[in-house]
Q: What sequence folds into this?
């Protein structure tokens, strides 16, 4: 674990120049749903170090791919659903979906489709909620909460860590800083761009230190999705192709592996869960998200060669998929 701000900065710089699993634990309402705070309000939190001392950072990075389906097979009144599957790059391996999607960005007619299926990142933190903007929040017995942070907020956190005027680690127990999650709106969507670190250092209270002593710190990697097996990857590929084809989600074929939130699996032991993200994400239409910016793909490829003129956006999904596969065979 990095113990100084200088070490974290060096790690961040190294990761910028080098771009290119375990079972989940949930159901304990430890996740603080900051996206539910009212517009114009602020939640003040204090981040803590990762319990995993091998992690240089005080967060764990999560990369997921959303597979949208128009509905569920066999359900006449089914609404659109989204299945989230792990991106293999999260485990340092090649991702078969990204390998197929990456060439789409070389063609303007496929770029929008590519953005839909590109990986989306979020970041898992832990800490105390020092000022709670949710009046109906049911805090767990363990006051150390987990936070699912969107890229928009994470970029604010990261930028401040690289600022030479920040002299101490914000997770320092005696001289750390609180972080203010500020919710506003922009263009009809939630906006967190005015979130910021507090300027005044503060020590943990006796109660907060006692909570750490009693409960310990979470190992944040424990809350990443389980790394897919070969069987899981086969199912992920099938779901990806069916999603692009415009087919409905098939509970009988895939329900024991990955499924939308709220959809019951067949009578078999589940092989994997779809996501540790907040429940509203999985049941909502593909365009919905509690985080502004979450529907924007992370580090999408930049087209590098001249391409054909874009075709009408009304082109059917099966035609697009056929075009993609034909080009890969050439």
A:
């Amino acid at each position: 674990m990095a113990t100084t701000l200088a070490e974290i900065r060096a790690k961040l710089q190294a990761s910028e120049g080098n771009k290119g699993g375990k079972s989940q634990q949930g159901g304990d309402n430890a996740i603080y749903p900051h996206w539910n705070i009212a517009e114009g309000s602020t939640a003040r939190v204090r981040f803590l170090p990762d319990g995993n001392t091998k992690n240089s950072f005080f967060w764990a990075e999560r990369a997921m791919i959303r597979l949208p389906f128009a509905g569920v097979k066999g359900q006449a009144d089914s609404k659109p659903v989204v299945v989230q599957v792990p991106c293999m790059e999260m485990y340092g391996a090649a991702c078969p979906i990204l390998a197929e999607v990456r060439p789409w960005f070389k063609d303007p007619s496929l770029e929008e489709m590519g953005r839909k299926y590109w990986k989306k990142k979020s970041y898992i933190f832990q800490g105390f909620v020092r000022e709670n903007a949710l009046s109906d929040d049911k805090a767990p017995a363990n006051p150390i909460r987990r936070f699912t942070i969107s890229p928009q907020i994470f970029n604010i956190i990261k930028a401040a860590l690289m600022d030479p005027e920040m002299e101490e680690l914000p997770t320092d127990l005696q001289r750390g800083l609180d972080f203010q999650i500020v919710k506003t709106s922009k263009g009809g969507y939630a906006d967190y761009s005015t979130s910021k670190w507090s300027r005044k250092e503060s020590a943990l209270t006796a109660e907060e230190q006692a909570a750490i002593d009693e409960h310990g710190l979470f190992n944040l990697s424990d809350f990443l999705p389980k790394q897919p097996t070969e069987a899981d990857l086969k199912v992920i590929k099938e779901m990806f192709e069916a999603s692009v084809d415009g087919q409905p989600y098939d509970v009988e074929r895939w329900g024991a592996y990955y499924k939308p939130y709220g959809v019951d699996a067949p009578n078999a032991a589940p092989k994997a869960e779809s996501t540790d993200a907040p429940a509203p994400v999985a049941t909502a239409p593909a365009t919905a998200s509690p985080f502004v910016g979450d529907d924007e793909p992370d580090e999408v490829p930049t087209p590098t060669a001249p391409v054909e003129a874009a075709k009408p956006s009304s082109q059917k999904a099966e035609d697009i998929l056929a075009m993609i596969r034909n080009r890969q065979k050439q």
